[in-house]
Design brief:
mainly alpha; membrane; transmembrane; CopD family protein; Cu-R_CopD_dom
Length: about 140
């Protein structure tokens, strides 16, 4: 069961991170060049159908894996390899949620393209960091001395 959950988690991470890389590297430059908010809006409308469910699946599978690998997570023992990485991932999730809420309720309704561009870049970097931390957790740790 755990291996299936890990596989589903990886597929969801691929969808989430890949979508943001495509947005940041292809659609965003074109939108900025043309000063056209609709380009971002069009991508988001199509991507959200698969991106948001992928994020929810990431959270659910992440919680499940946490109960297995770090059931004592809230001891905040940064010497524990799993706890350290999971807490970093929780911090990244909090950043993602804050950026998404600010974009959804402030920037998108006002169609502020340049500030939204910074959000897109920040969420893309955050999603790549999620992958890096996940890789570190599974590979023995790039954050270990």
């Amino acid at each position: 069961m755990l291996k299936i959950v890990i596989f589903i988690h990886i597929i969801s991470a691929t969808i989430w991170t890949g979508g943001h890389l495509i947005l940041a590297l292809t659609f965003l430059p074109k939108a900025l060049r043309n000063n056209d908010f609709k380009i971002i809006e069009s991508f988001e409308t199509r991507y959200e159908r698969i991106g948001i469910p992928s994020l929810f699946i990431l959270v659910i599978t992440g919680i499940y894996m946490t109960t297995i690998y770090a059931p004592d997570l809230f001891t905040f023992d940064f010497e524990n390899h799993f706890i350290k990485h999971i807490l970093i991932k929780l911090g990244l999730l909090l950043c993602t949620i804050c950026l998404a809420l600010h974009a959804r309720f402030v920037l998108i309704p006002k169609q502020k393209l340049k500030p939204l561009a910074y959000h897109i870049i920040a969420v893309t970097i955050t999603s790549v960091l999620f992958v890096l931390v996940g890789f570190s957790l599974r590979s023995g740790g790039i954050f270990n001395p």
